[in-house]
Amino acid sequence: PNRERKYYAASIGSVFFRMSSTTKTLDTADTAATTVVSCPGKVLLAGGYTVLERPNVGVVVCTGARFYASVGWTASTDGSSQGDIENKNDGEVSIDVDVHSPQFGSVAEYRVVMTSETVVSLPEIQPRNPGKHNSNPYVEKTLSAVLSFVQIFHGEILSVLRPPALSSTLRIELRGDNDFYSQVHHMSANGLSMTTENVQNLPNFLPCTVVNKTGMGSSAALVTSLVGALLNFFDVVNLSSSSKCKENTEVLKEKDLAVTHNLAQFCHTLAQGKVGSGFDVSAACYGSHLYTRFSPDVLADLLAPTSTSHAPKRIYDRVMDLERWDSFVDPFSLPPGVGIMMADVCGGSETPSMVRKVLAWRDGGSEESKTIWPGLVRSNDTIVMMLKRLSNIFGGEDGPAMVNVLSKMDHTGWVDIVSDAEHQTGRIAIPARALSSLRNSMINARVFLRKMGKNAGVPIEPNEQTDLANATMALKGVIAAGVPGAGGNDALYVLYLHGDVESGNGEDIVRARIGELWQSWKGKGNTEVGRCVCPLPGRRRVDENIYSGLRVEKSPCW
């Protein structure tokens, strides 16, 4: 059935409220002149591959890891002046942009010239030091698209995009929490055991000397946070909790978020050169939710190799045409008493090539594909249904007590409750039955994914991951474990019931039990993958909602 995105009111149409344009003043010591936007990492708990096809649903759960982008004017450190360029033409603005990535020890220096022609074609992002430059398409494509979007939105480019001083630079800083990148090498080099406590106590934003990603969507989070920070900084949207506009505040905020989401989807698509499912960008914007993708033709023609495909005005109109974006975002959270834990197995996967091979196999029309693909869709639908049912059960008055009892059992204990005549009619049998059904559905999904991978020649669930997942699922309180998203050797997820808190260290006993297994794990096989398992617990924070979507931070957090 046709479903509309829940985050904006269709009745508003495509009219957008423009906020007042204010030029940011230059003050290198004034952090109030800097905009910091963050967004979460993600785990695709169910819907790997099938989410590429409408109307299939993906269960997207956000992690505690967040990616940060800050934007602000600062004094140029190299003493350069843009005055000669700027004074040539009142209709031209030259912007020096420095993109700092401290975790990678790099500063990319660009110059962007905005003219009346940049509403016809995207502006070129030119490196100021070509000999020392390493290209990053996620940053460069995003800068080009967003700056042209800002120009069209405001109409008058000089008042908004012109630097506040002749020798000023637009400084961008990008940082990702440690969980986005494998910390196994750092832990080993410093003689640290792979415990949750040790990982949580690591300094924030550690340098990435060896880059292995953990599959939490760092590229989508980078693009989304950067788009949000630039749009918010240049007064195109207001993503802060207190809107400048006193009327229609909630509507405006939802519309601002939708515009940010749409432009981030385009930028990520432009950088990748293809239209994906978009669930990772959607998660970065909206947080945990049930996701149905937008129709691919929303963006496909904007990538076509024609003279007008990348025209900024066409891009602008498409982003602002909210009614055309038919993705479905249904807010979701794990049931009360249910937690998620991630493991870094120090591997890595080429998701785009895996997806291409799987889709080629599916489109080949083999008899196996006609059985496996629909079976996987049905399993995912059951997973969604059981998660919702457990939310209702554990959200009730008896929920905490039920979780406490069931967390002390392994899955065979839940089965015994359901099959035991003495307990069949008891209240505890209701969640036990739902837990067993959820577990079985997640196992079935794993079986279908493994069959799919075998037929397509893709390691969706490698043997090393199967061994670790099965061993983890045998523990008391564990509901299910598996590889998230497209699979491979990026990471492992675990769904578990919160257990009693241990005296002394205050740690959840079920979570501690999982950590102990992983710490002692010695994987089989001849590769390093799976031989060493490191928990990804997320950064410790005091804020009340670490799993929220895109948001403006009150100040830099570094």
Structure overview:
It is a single chain. Residues 1-32, 81-88, 242-247 and 540-544 have low confidence and may be disordered. The strands form 2 sheets. Strands 1, 2, 3, 4, 5, 6, 7, 8 and 13 form a 9-stranded mixed beta sheet that branches. The protein has a 4-stranded antiparallel beta sheet with strand order 10-11-9-12. It is an alpha+beta fold and 558 residues long. Helix 2 (137-154) packs across helix 7 and helix 12 packs antiparallel against helix 16 (429-456). The protein is globular and about 80 Å long. The two termini are 46 Å apart. A hairpin with a 4-residue loop joins strand 3 and strand 4. Helices cover 38% and strands 17% of the residues.
* Major β-sheet annotation: 9 strands, mixed
Shape: globular
Number of strands: 13
Distance between the termini: 46 Å
Give the count of helical stretches.
Answer: 18
Uncertain residue ranges:
1-32, 81-88, 242-247, 540-544
Beta-strand residue fraction: 15-25%
Mean pLDDT, rounded to whole units?
A: 85
- Class from helix and strand fractions: alpha+beta
Gyration radius, in Å: 24 Å
Helical amount: 25-40%
